[in-house]
Amino acid sequence: MPSASTGASTTVGATSSVTSPVRSSTAAVDSRLTPGGPGYRRMSFALFLAGVATFALLYSTQALLPLVSTDFGVSASEASWTVSAATGALALFVLPMSALSERFGRRTLMTASLAVAVTVGLLVPFAPSIGALVALRAVQGAALAGLPASATAYLAEEVRPTALITAIGLFVAGNSVGGMSGRVITGWVAQEWGWRVAVATIGIIAVACAVAFRMLLPAPKHFTPGSLRPRVLARTVRDHLANPLLRRLYAIGALFMMVFGGVYTVIGYRLTEAPFSLPQGIIGSIFLVYLVGTVSASTAGRLVARLGRRGSLYLAGGTTTAGLLLSLVDSLPLVLLGLVLITAGFFAGHAVASSSVSHTAKQGRAQASALYQSAYYIGSSAGSTLGAVAFHAGGWAGTVALGLFAVLGVVTITLLGSHAARAQARHEPALAH
Predict the structure, then answer these.
(1) Residues near 194 by Cβ (< 8 Å), separated by ≥ 6?
(2) Model pTM?
(3) Which of 101, 37, 172 is nearest to 365 (CA)?
(4) Rounded CA gap, 45 and 26, in Å?
(5) Distance from first CA to last CA of the chain, Å, rounded?
(6) Which CB contacts under 8 angstroms, 24+ apart, belong to 321-328?
(7) Number of other residues whose CB lies within 10 A of the CB of residue 1
(8) By the 8 A CB rule, do 402 and 386 touch?
(9) 95 vs 90, 156, 370, 375, CA distance in Å?
(10) 38-42, Cβ contacts within 8 angstroms, sequence gap of 24 or more
């Protein structure tokens, strides 16, 4: 790019006058993927399948916690560690995995991560104890850490900026489909054959998704290998954490996921108790509301275009709050409506925040995305554990109170961002004068 823009102005002669326009026109061509262009549909479907496999595996035990509790004779908070261990390990390993993706490539790391995760997924049904189950789930979460940050970095490099939010929204939509299908399938399978057969079924589905992903994903054309030196990685991470906007986005992702993790970890226990007393298959079907998340995530680009980033986050927070309050009523239709609103608000907020991270970070995108994913899954792990503790202490109202506290944090952080933006806007004209 620089050579094309400067060569004609500094070189004299016939050769330079002829070649510089060619260089300029070549440099102006953007070969990155765009909707409707070649390879975009294959790329979108491949990453959609990766999202399906990731969330189906990561939360494969969440809808089955009451059955896991009964099988191993443990409490809700102990059983919740089968979810928290996976999300916590993902949060811990996502940054090192992002560094590996900078060195060896996004597609290579995503393929290896899925291969390990689906292999462990086929071992999970044979866990002899709750301790062994938690350990296997931790290994699975660590393996899956190679997917989220690498996927968003791949999109940031291979997709044109104007289509980035939409492309990441489709990946997040795959997450929602994976979370939904995993829970619905495990619910009905577990009702007939138990939780072990249910998680084995998810493992087989994830194998199919992993194979299709590797066959469909286009080879990267804009990836440049980076350094694995710890000093370089530490400097990149430090620079990202020094960015106030990125810090706010990381916190927002964590708080949104705290709400979501807490609600969906505990909802199975609530619905098996009076006044609902629903069977496992019906409880699994409740997760069909994830389809709402698929829609809200995939339309995040249009939402930001209309309301802006902060306006979209306010709307997502308000929608989540309304859902939490509705879910307090002992009426199944209102509880379902509450879950719909919580899901729509969460996925919209997550898509907006995660795409904003990729847009904000100009260098070290994998590390920027990894830090977001780390915060996001720390929120999930904390939400799963604290949501179960709150449910044990105060029933469903305790879990809702935790969720409302987290949404209040989202709104407060967004308000601080609005204030910082206004202060910067006032400061810049003053500098100009």
Answers:
(1) 67, 71
(2) 0.71
(3) 101
(4) 30
(5) 33
(6) 321/345, 321/404, 321/407, 324/259, 324/263, 324/400, 324/403, 324/404, 324/407, 325/400, 325/404, 327/263, 327/396, 327/400, 328/396, 328/397, 328/400
(7) 9
(8) yes
(9) 9, 17, 5, 11
(10) 39/218, 40/159, 40/163, 42/216, 42/217, 42/218
Residue 33's alpha-carbon distances to 16, 340, 363, in angstroms, are 31, 33, 20
- What is the rounded CA–CA span in Å between residue 410 and residue 394? 23
**pLDDT tens digits for range 190-239:** 988 999 999 999 999 999 999 999 999 888 887 777 666 778 778 888 98
Sole residue written with tokens 């050579």: 3
At 159 the three-state DSSP class reads strand
Cα–Cα distance, 171 to 242 (Å, whole number)? 28
> In this structure, what token pair is assigned to residue 195?
């939780």
Tell me which residue of 186, 90, 111, 101 sits closest to 150, measured CA to CA: 101
Distance of alpha carbon 51 from alpha carbon 62, whole angstroms: 17
**Which residues make Cβ contacts (< 8 Å) with residue 188, sequence separation at least 6?**
280, 281, 284, 285
- The amino acid that residue 264 corresponds to is Y
Reported as a single tens digit per residue, the pLDDT across 76-86 is 888 989 988 99
Q: Report d(CA 203, CA 179) in Å as an integer.
A: 13
Kindly report the number of other CB atoms within 10 A of residue 228's CB atom.
12
As a residue count, the chain comes to 433
- At 274, is the secondary structure helix, strand, or coil? coil
Phi, psi of 33 (to 5 degrees): -70, 150
